[in-house]
Amino acid sequence: MKKTFMAARGKPRRVDFGLHKQDFEAALLGSLGQSTVAISANTQLSKGQVTYRLRKAGVRLGDYRSGESTIARLVMRNMRPVLERELHAHLKQL
Fold first, then answer.
1. What is the pTM of this model?
2. Exposure b/e, 12-28, CB count within 10 A at least 16 = b
3. Position 6 in a domain
4. How far is CA 62 from CA 58, 78, 87, 94, in A?
5. Between vectors from CA 39 to CA 50 and to CA 65, what angle results, nearest 5°?
């Protein structure tokens, strides 16, 4: 007997950021500004599942990219000295 698409996928599960590592990882990577496609590739979740988890977590990819999120500000503050040093070294080689 041939399995239907729904039977092959199994029963859907609830999103739980504390219980399921994939859910937490999707929210974390989204907080770091990764695209839905990149998050999907890293977590084995579909793009729709990633989008749903980001919405449930209140993560907006645009906030990181525009520098408005807390995490974006932390990354900028902590990484800026290293990035400036690397950029100066690269520009000298041009």
1. 0.75
2. eeebebeebebbbbbbb
3. no
4. 12, 20, 25, 32
5. 100
Structural domain harbouring 32: 16-93
DSSP code string of 37-92: HHHHHHH---HHHHHHHHHHHT--HHHHHTT-SHHHHHHHHHHHHHHHHHHHHHHH
Asked whether residue 11 is domain-assigned, the answer is: no
User: How many structural domains is the chain composed of?
Assistant: 1
Q: Residues 42-72: pLDDT tens digits?
A: 999 999 999 999 999 999 988 888 888 888 8
Examine residue 52 and state whether it is found in any structural domain, yes or no.
yes
